Amino acid sequence: MKEFVDFVPAPDQIVQLYEKLDRGESLELEWKNPGRRPPTPVAEEKPAEAELPATEADNKDFDFDEDFGEGLVTPQRRNPGSALKGSARKLTTSLDGVLSSMKRHRKIEEMDDDTPKKAQ
């Protein structure tokens, strides 16, 4: 906080500065670039020696001859030029499909509008 106490000018200087600003004059700054601060030192941590788990020695009854490949599904390559299947296929719309959908919705709306009139 001591740095800021020296920075605050006296009240009569503040009045003079405001008067200069009121007249349109520019203020002179007395400021020095403090420069860059040195980088913060990083504490280097040495990795702890890896300890082998004690359960490895107890687990001697494991059978390494089992086939684990039976349940695995390997991805199959797609032949170039073949069509994609399911959700991987790109969806496209045609104008005929849009028009038929509009007709269908219009018929459904007309049926909904006619139903309450007949009920009354």
Any chance you could write out the topology, listing elements then pairs?
Blueprint (H helix, E strand, L loop, with lengths): L1 H6 L3 H13 L31 H4 L36 H25 L1
Q: Over the alpha carbons, how many angstroms does the gyration radius reach?
A: 41 Å
Based on helices, strands and strand pairing, what is the structural class? mainly alpha
Helix-residue proportion: 40-55%
Number of strands: 0
Overall geometric form: flat
Strand content: under 5%
Rounded to the nearest angstrom, the distance between the terminal CA atoms is 85 Å
Tally of contiguous helical segments: 4
Low-confidence stretches: none
Order of helices and strands: HHHH
Major beta sheet summary? none
Q: What is the typical, i.e. mean, pLDDT?
A: 76
In short:
The protein has 120 residues and is an all-alpha fold. Helix content is 40%, strand content 0%.
